[in-house]
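stuck on this fold:
=====
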Amino acid sequence: MNSGSEKIKIIFAGRYNSGEILSGPEKVAKRIFGCLSNQTNSVFIEYFFDGLKYSVWQKLFGRERVIDDQNNQIFRLGIFQILLYTIKFKPKIVHILSFERFTITFFLLRFILRFKVSYTINGVVAFENSNFRRNTNSYLKFKDKIVEWCLIKFSNKLFFLSEQSVNIARKYYNVVNDKIILTTNGVDEIFNQMFIERKYEEKSKLNVVLIADSNRVEKGLDFFLKAIQPIQDDFIFSIIGENPNFDDQIKYYPKMPTDKFAKFLLNQDIYISSSYFDTFPVTTLESMAAGVIPILTTETGVSRFIINGENGFVYSYGDDASLRKYILELKIDFQLRKKISQNAATIYNQFRWGEISKNYLEIFYRMLND
């Protein structure tokens, strides 16, 4: 840590959502900035993303303050305003919290102003565009590839969420070992509070929840729906996401703000991941912190913290028999269910956002000394 009194000057860049119905990358961006804004001299810069809402003039020269409940320094800027603001602010570090095309702007000034750049890799966009986003047109995919190449090539440090993500990135880019930082996402205190309020009791039907969108094929929704058919009558299944109502026996919910989701988890018993690619889902940590038992695919990043039968279960994507087996084991063994729930909730101690952001800050100071 810096022993002096002067706070490090940081520009955080990405997509800022002032609400609480957040995607994973949006929550990471909001929480990391929120935790570090008081410990650093920092601002958050985002762009005029919505092409239907904002004019070309705004995208080039626009500037407006984004209001949040903490009165933080958050600005929505056009490209030229980003350049001017960065020159005036003179950051020591620019940290890019999510993949956005506008962030390539900072590299135009990096070598002139001599600031360091780091980048949190929530997912490898070239891989996702090739495998999951097949409706994205070729021109946008090409732009994404150029921007991602630039981010990986010229950033001083790359914050990866899993070894799996590192290996995938290496299939597309030359990833220098010395740049790699393995980090994790975090979890809010409210989920730990739900665990404290949790009551254990025998149930005729356990509540099982999956977070998945029908348009995100990597989430494995079709596999999940097929896997649970033989046991569907024995449990109460819920799916949260942007989905049509496939089955009247399953409860479907839209995405929820953080506080509502936390309260929802209070009555859930099992959290399922059916993904065949998911770097480090925040909702998995949140569910575990609330005492919901995780059953995760090996392809889910959080699975590396799971010990089978101790704090959850892990199975391979496509192994529907193992998925049903673990669900049924929890149904018939109340003491096992209670033990695993309590063990799962201890993950909060390791993954509080305050601890995760502290690790970020320590790495920022090390970057300045490199």
